[in-house]
Every structure is written in C-alpha cells, then in structure tokens.
Inverse folding.
C-alpha cells in the first residue's frame, strides 16, 4: 500500500512539473506569435 501511495505521489509531482513546463511553453509561443504578427496565424 505504501509503495502504491509513493508511486501516486511521484506521478502527481511529475504531472505538476509537466504542467509548469507546458504553461511556460504556451507563454513563449504566444510571445512569438505576437512578435511575428497575423501572417503566422494563416500559415
């Protein structure tokens, strides 16, 4: 039971880290999109 709980906590920590990375990537992508302008949306 303790091993399962530890595995679940590890998975939760990994998910939280992935969500943080995804949020950072989305912010960078939006900044690039804003810098390039509307032509990037059509491509």
């Amino acid at each position: 039971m303790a091993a399962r709980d530890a595995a679940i906590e590890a998975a939760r920590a990994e998910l939280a880290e992935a969500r943080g990375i995804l949020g950072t990537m989305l912010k960078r992508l939006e900044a690039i999109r804003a810098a390039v302008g509307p032509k990037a949306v059509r491509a």
